[in-house]
Design brief:
The protein contains 2 helices and 4 strands; from the N terminus they run ααββββ. By secondary structure, the chain is an alpha+beta fold. It has one domain. Strands 1-2-3-4 form a 4-stranded antiparallel beta sheet. Strand 2 and strand 3 form a beta hairpin.
Length: about 80
Amino acid sequence: MIPSARAAALVFTFASLGAGPSAAAADPALLKDLGAVIVLLGLPCDRLVSAARQADGSHIAACRNGKRYRIFINAEGRVVALRQ
């Protein structure tokens, strides 16, 4: 897959995550998608154990190794994960 197509697919996946109500900890599909975002961005996370949707539409994802990331779409439309 070419980089721009991968980025578009990633943005679409992340945008669709924010469309419905969040039962993040109980939704394995959400954990899998957010985990994929973290891996594609090259950040260290051995396994995603929980995620919580925030009021601003972002998600806080917690990894088994103790790292936490805030995942959101920035003003340019790119998916960003910031270490918390």
